[in-house]
Design brief:
This protein is of the alpha+beta class. Helix content is 55%, strand content 8%. The chain has a 6-stranded antiparallel beta sheet. A two-stranded antiparallel sheet has the order 7-12. A hairpin with a 2-residue loop joins strand 1 and strand 2. Helix 23 packs parallel to helix 25 and helix 25 packs antiparallel against helix 26.
Length: 782
């Protein structure tokens, strides 16, 4: 009805963050913001059978749990056949994992499995055992970079050395068509007991110097340490060692000399967690357009605003720059109290220059960092290889190729961030010129003043358009998060309800923070009305029907004022009809059917007026059919004769709408609901064949749009409610008409599917009268 981590101490895997982490609020002390991932990938609680102590799992003996995230759980395990220690990752939901969970899990494993590089955690085996999907990988006995940075920023040379090695690994992945898309300190593990660390920067065996990074101290490696590490991390062949102090980095750019410098960074960084990886040469995407994936503080603008098609290798270059920024300053370039504000900062705001936070940072290293995190991909380094070459030049004491931004560029960016000040300066400049013109050329005074007015007007117009576009992007990002929280995964998972509550409350605060309905400008009032509707949707998802109703009524009052001012505007009439429908739905959920019927009638009248002004607009046609469907639904229950007459008019319009080509989600859903109304009438008049025909056609339409994203949360609930009704009635009619036991049993299965959909709706709105009544009636009918 339209209402519708383990006890591993400093072990690296302790900080492993799952690709499916939730939208946690950021805290200033956190080095890594959580990863944003689609709600469909959030897993169920791990079964007890997955985590017993010292369990034998195929060829592995599980020793202990060392990390747990939103999608996966990681164990330290011993591979029995090869007698080596490995890390083993399993899907958190075990045998209950959805198809998307499994696809994403194997995408992570397969993306990393094709990469054989000393600075990438190796994948040893991918498979499943007794229905439990897993993959094993190198065990890294050391902290993550995020753990190191909790103690403060690194020394500049340590940061440059560490990132140069990570750049080498990322370029290696890019050359093989894999983009990581979730680089951050928590996904860079640091090997402390690895012979390959000595390969990268060999130390004199007699050197007893201890290297310090933050509060972590690493001394000379022992033979025992190396033996353990060789079980954990695959090392290059012996003949590949000691050829250069740069080690495997030399493969990145043959034009760079192999400089022999004493290493100041005693760890070997290893990149892990390819759960959000994108493969350039295949269809590896599991996400839709507009979804925001990644970690807000480390994602580039093209990833933050949901433009997934634009996320390429330069997105990883940006993340590398953000990691360097964090290593130099102790904090990411952008962080705020919640993910929404962080995303807006990433899209709109410039980063603070690192030397303002830490004056000891060399200017060349700051230049490298700022170039990598440019908003425009075209202004960044063209590849991780180029960035690594710049870091090598810095470490060797050679001039870097990147140059700090000029005074002119800095001034232009400042003016872009302060448009009103720039506009005032422009007006003052031309005003001064006009005074000079009066003194020296009074005959040109009027022409000068006219030019000033035109320039000021055009500048103000350009700034206004730019501000509107930025606001639209911010609203779009929040709307996407709202739709995600309305999904089945978020609505039906008890452990996510607290997080879901916070996201929705943040959305309410965001929508209410702009737009004043008392403004005289019609556009401002219309935006205020839309904001109130978004607030209403959020409260409906929070099961606060009273607050949802009040917000919708505020929106309707604004549209009624606009209709009074602009009676010939079909847009305001259609919008008011939609809001009145929402009010009626909320009344129906509360069991106040008289008020619901009145508002459905009002919505129908408004939609009719809009259609009379512009009968060719398909959105107005859709709104009219939707309003009529609900009105007829109530008429058939109270006034059969009037309902039957209205039903004929409704189905005439509905079939015209359904026969048009290129129908979008709302059009097709509206047509399906109209068919359910006709089916209900046929069934109530013992026309089971007619009812079955209507429900089968409605079911086909719903199946066709099942993969399309709903435009808002109300339409998402409307889809689920319509599908539940069709499943229940289709199953009931099928059982009554069925001649064989098999046909009757199929009908019972369809009815059960409808009951499960109603249960999902009741999880969001447990007191909703229509859902409860229909569920009770269906159970009785079965």
């Amino acid at each position: 009805m339209g209402m519708a981590s383990g006890n591993g101490g400093r072990k690296a895997h302790q900080d492993l963050e799952s690709n499916e982490a939730t939208l946690d609020h950021l805290k200033p002390s956190e080095m890594d913001a959580p990863t944003l991932a689609p709600a469909s990938s959030l897993a169920s609680p791990v079964p007890d059978s997955v985590n017993p102590p010292l369990q034998t799992f195929g060829d592995y003996q599980i020793l202990r749990e060392i990390a747990r995230g939103g999608m996966g759980v990681v164990y330290q395990a011993k591979q029995i056949s090869l007698n080596r220690i490995v890390a083993m990752k399993m899907i958190l939901s075990g045998q209950l994992a959805s198809e998307d969970d499994v696809k994403r899990f194997y995408l992570e494993a397969e993306s990393a499995a094709g990469l054989d590089h000393p600075a990438i955690v190796p994948i040893f085996e991918i498979g499943s055992h007794n229905g439990q999907h897993f993959f094993s990988m190198g065990y890294i006995d050391g902290p993550s970079l995020a753990n190191i940075l909790k103690d403060g920023p690194l020394a500049p040379r340590q940061a440059a050395e560490c990132l140069a090695r990570v750049c080498d690994a990322i370029q290696y992945a890019h050359d093989r068509g894999v983009i990581h898309r979730d680089l951050k300190p928590g996904n860079i593990l640091l090997a402390t007991e690895s012979a390959s660390a000595a390969m990268l920067n060999p130390l004199d065996p007699r050197d007893q110097t201890k290297h310090t990074v933050g509060k972590h101290t690493v001394g000379k490696q022992t033979a025992t340490n190396i033996s353990v590490a060789n079980n954990a991390v695959a090392s290059p062949p012996e003949n590949s060692r000691s050829k250069s102090r740069v080690g495997p980095l030399r493969a990145v750019d043959s034009s760079i000399s192999h400089r022999k410098t004493t290493s100041e960074f005693p760890y070997l960084p290893k990149v892990t967690d390819f759960g959000l990886a994108k493969q350039l040469h295949g269809n590896s995407e599991l996400t839709g357009t507009g979804q925001v994936l990644g970690t807000p503080s480390y994602m580039p603008p093209e990833q933050a605003d949901g433009r997934g098609a634009n996320v390429g290798p330069l997105a990883d270059v940006y993340a590398l720059g953000a990691i360097l920024y964090c290593m130099l300053t102790g904090r990411p370039p952008f962080q705020s109290a919640n993910p929404i504000d962080t995303i807006i900062q990433v899209i709109k705001e410039p980063a603070i220059a690192p030397r303002q936070l830490n004056p000891s940072i060399p200017r060349d290293l700051e230049t490298i960092c700022l170039k990598a995190i440019e908003k425009s991909p075209l202004k960044r380094y063209g590849s991780a290889r180029e960035m690594r070459a710049e870091l090598e030049r810095f470490l060797a004491g050679e001039p870097i190729e990147a140059r700090p931004i000029s005074a002119v560029e800095r001034a232009s960016r400042w003016l872009w961030r302060h448009p009103m000040v720039a506009l005032m300066g422009l007006v003052i400049l031309f005003a001064t010129a006009s005074v000079i013109g009066i003194i020296y050329a009074s005959n040109r005074r009027l022409e000068t003043e006219r030019d000033i007015a035109l320039v000021a007007k055009e500048a103000a117009k350009a700034q206004s358009l730019l501000a509107e576009k930025r606001l639209e992007k911010a609203i779009g990002a929040v709307d996407q998060m709202m739709v995600r929280t309305a999904s089945e995964r978020w609505a039906t998972r008890p452990e996510l309800q607290e997080e879901r509550q916070r996201v929705l409350e943040d959305a309410v605060a965001f929508y209410e923070s702009f737009g004043d309905e008392n403004e005289q400008d019609a556009r401002v009032q219309a935006e205020a009305a839309k904001s109130q509707m978004r607030v209403s949707e959020a409260y409906l998802m929070l099961n606060n029907l009273e607050a949802s109703l009040k917000a919708a009524q505020k929106s309707l009052a604004i549209y009624e004022r606009l209709i009074h001012l602009f009676p010939k505007s079909p847009n305001y009439l259609s919008a008011a009809s939609e809001v009145s429908m929402a009010i009626a739905n909320t009344y129906a959920l509360s069991g106040k059917y008289a008020q619901a019927k009145s508002n459905y009638s009002f919505a129908t009248e408004l939609a009719k007026l809009a259609l009379e002004l512009d009968g060719k607009d398909r959105s107005f046609q859709t709104r009219s059919v939707e309003a009529k469907s609900h009105q007829v639904y109530f008429l058939l229950a109270t006034d059969t004769a009037a309902g039957q007459a209205a039903l004929q008019d409704l189905m005439l319009d509905a079939r015209k709408l359904g026969e048009q080509d290129g129908g979008e989600f709302v059009e097709r859903l509206t047509f399906a609901f109209a068919l359910t109304v006709e089916g209900a009438y046929s069934t109530s008049n013992n026309d089971l064949n007619g009812g079955a025909r209507c429900y089968d056609q409605a079911w086909t339409v719903l199946q066709e749009i099942s993969g399309l994203p709903p435009p808002n949360t109300r339409q998402a609930a409307q889809y689920k409610y319509t599908r539940a009704i069709v499943a229940v009635q289709r199953g009931l009619v099928g059982s009554l008409r069925g001649k064989s036991m098999q046909e009757k049993e199929l009908g019972l299965v369809q009815m059960q599917e409808g009951i499960e959909l109603l249960d999902q709706l009741l999880l969001v709105n447990p007191k909703a009268f229509p859902y409860r009544i229909i569920k009770i009636q269906t159970i009785s009918a079965r």
